[in-house]
Amino acid sequence: MSLETVAEEIREEAEEQAEAIRQDAESEAEEIVSDAEAEVEREIDQLREQELSSAKLEAKHEREIDQLREQELSSAKLEAKHERMSARREALDDVRDRVESRIADLDADQRRELTESLLTDSLEEFAEDAQLAVHYAPGDEALIEELLEERQNVAPAGEIDCLGGVVVESESSRVRVKNTFDSVLADVWEDELKQISDRLFDEQ
Questions:
Q1: Pairing between β-strand 132-136 and β-strand 165-170 as defined by DSSP bridges
Q2: HEC sequence for the chain
């Protein structure tokens, strides 16, 4: 499994999930506005039932109606906007949680392939004779040892808190390359998922 494949799967799942939640939010927002409009009409009808004894009272009555309509609909639209924003946050949080769960549950072959790819990319950032230390995710010690078997100048250096991948450090310098599943997800999140969210929840 390549990084491109993981990114594409994340994009597709994010778009489907965000679209479903957006539709629910739009329906709820429309219901809020509709209810507010109905309430306005009920209050207007009540006002109209009141007896008006003069043209002056009639004009005042109409102003009150217009003000009431504006206030009620403005409040309803603001509440609808808050519902959309809440749905957007919910969509992004839910998608990220699901993606992290999927990454954590990669099968052994997929995890090995992706880890090896990230390790290879990391090692290419250093000179061939550099003495390097590789940090890895909890549970990946055996995998990292296997991937480093034929590399004389690279050694496992203990666990770090991440979903997978590696962090490679040079023992002779302060160079540190972070190539974890988490960092890949963060890059995809910033480059792709935010654009999807902005498009699906575009406020008109």
A1: antiparallel
A2: CCHHHHHHHHHHHHHHHHHHHHHHHHHHHHHHHHHHHHHHHHHHHHHHHCCCCCHHHHHHHHHHHHHHHHHHHHHHHHHHHHHHHHHHHHHHHHHHHHHHHHHHCCCHHHHHHHHHHHHHHHHCCCCCCCCEEEEECCCCHHHHHHHCCCCCCEEEEEECCCCCEEEEEECCCCCEEEEEHHHHHHHHHHHHHHHHHHHHCCCC
Please tell me the pTM assigned to this model. 0.60
What tokens does 3 get?
A: 């990084």
Which tens digits make up the pLDDT trace of 30-59? 777 677 677 767 766 666 665 544 555 566
Other beta carbons within 10 Å of 183: 16
Instruction: Give CA–CA dist 106/109, Å, rounded.
Output: 8
Encode 59-71: b = buried (16+ Cβ within 10 Å), e = exposed: eeeeeeeeeebee
Q: Which two tokens stand for residue 134?
A: 């590789």
Please name the residue that has the structure tokens 């995809």.
188
